Amino acid sequence: MTDALRFPAEWEPQSGVLIAWPHADTDWAERLAEVEETYIALVAAITRFQPVVICVADDDVETYAEMRLRSNRVDMDRVRFIPAPYDDTWLRDSGPITLARNDGGFQLLDFRFTGWGGKFEASRDDQLVGVLHAAGLFKPGTEVRSLPFALEGGAIDTDGAGTLLTTWRCLHERHPARDRASLGADMAQWMRQERVLWLDHGYLEGDDTDAHIDTLARFASTDSIVYQDCDDPQDTHYAELQAMGAELAALRTADGLPYRLFPLPWPRPVRDGERRLAASYANFLVINGAVLMPAYGDDADEAARSVLARAFPDREIVQVPCRSLIWQNGSLHCITMQLPAGLLER
């Protein structure tokens, strides 16, 4: 593409990962101790490879988070805290979507965050990008472009070469009056994409996002896709995920070739009482030199690790325990946002 802006793929070099620390005034309150262990494990895994920026609601949250991380021997030289108010910690959906300029600068796309279509309070989350920019987190000259369009980062995936992957279910739910052609054209223009690939099938029970792509199918390179499979004909997801697999098999790369597909194993159902939780191995995070994958204490965890090792042969696959996260209907990728190389001020 000749445009001065480009949407980097997640596997490209990063300057850090952005997260927000859970605290008693978030929806994690009921199981805070359990979810803190997941965050500690996540920060420990990230800092093995690169820096992490942690949003903290106030000084007390920062002091506590630092104490917990230090006591678990996390490399604090790679941890930076930044004060910012937030409603919840799903920064994949409220954090910045970053475009890189050919001249080394950046543009942060600040879409409207509506709490997944008004399901939850999100007024502070909707202001997060502006707050972080005003705090001087990003490289001087970084531009914020505010767009009056509801879109969450988990709803899209790019190959870094002009192809965007998304689901019609989610975008149609957010914008019921819009047709596919106009939605695709707008997203392609905003995110500097040459084409948008839509999936019509695929969902997870217990998912509040209306079928975010990052729970279902992800680019592993410009010619390969990792996706959540279901091989149990008795499971309620079987027909939809099989249909999604067929859709993926019918997609073509920009060069007109079939994608190499890497189906992920299906974990046993995880329930919270009568409620089934949305456990997906597709919700992994790619960082410098590694892929962090959600682990659920299931026999399929190791099989999922093997699939990801084949899809990302040049990266270490690191399991992060995420059973606590799916209680709130998300997983590892949902609580993180990668920041491309050069974006952070320091």
Question: In short, what is this structure?
Answer:
This protein is α/β, with parallel strands linked by helices and 346 residues long. Helices cover 27% and strands 26% of the residues.
- Can you tell me the CATH class? Alpha Beta
Q: How much helix is in the residues?
A: 25-40%
Strands side by side in the biggest sheet: 1-5-6-7
Largest sheet: 4 strands, mixed
Mean pLDDT: 96
Number of strands: 19
Number of helical runs? Answer: 11
> Roughly what fraction of the amino acids lie in strands?
25-35%
Low-confidence stretches are none
The CATH architecture is 5-stranded Propeller
- The ordered string of helix (H) and strand (E) elements is EEHEHEHEEHHHEEEHHEEEHEEEEEHEHE
How does the overall form come out from the CA principal axes? globular
How many distinct folded domains? 1
Radius of gyration, CA atoms, in whole angstroms = 19 Å
Query: SS-based structural class?
Result: alpha/beta
Quote the CATH topology. L-arginine/glycine Amidinotransferase, Chain A
Determine the CATH superfamily. L-arginine/glycine Amidinotransferase, Chain A
Euclidean distance between termini CA atoms: 30 Å
Keywords: Hydrolase
Protein name: Agmatine deiminase family protein
Pfam family, one: PAD_porph
Task: Give a written overview of the molecule.
The chain is an alpha/beta fold. It has a single domain (5-340), classed as L-arginine/glycine Amidinotransferase, Chain A (5-stranded Propeller). Helices cover 27% and strands 26% of the residues. The protein contains 11 helices and 19 strands. It has helices at residues 32-47, 59-71, 91-94, 115-118, 123-126, 128-134, 168-174, 180-190, 238-250, 300-311, 323-326, and strands spanning 5-6, 14-20, 52-56, 79-83, 97-101, 106-112, 143-150, 156-158, 163-167, 195-199, 217-221, 224-228, 260-264, 271-272, 275-276, 285-287, 290-295, 316-321, 337-340. The strands form 6 sheets. It has a 4-stranded mixed β-sheet with strand order 1-5-6-7, covered by helices on one side. A hairpin with a 2-residue loop joins strand 14 and strand 15. The mean pLDDT is 96. Pfam families: PAD_porph. InterPro entries: Peptidyl-Arg-deiminase_porph. Keywords: Hydrolase.
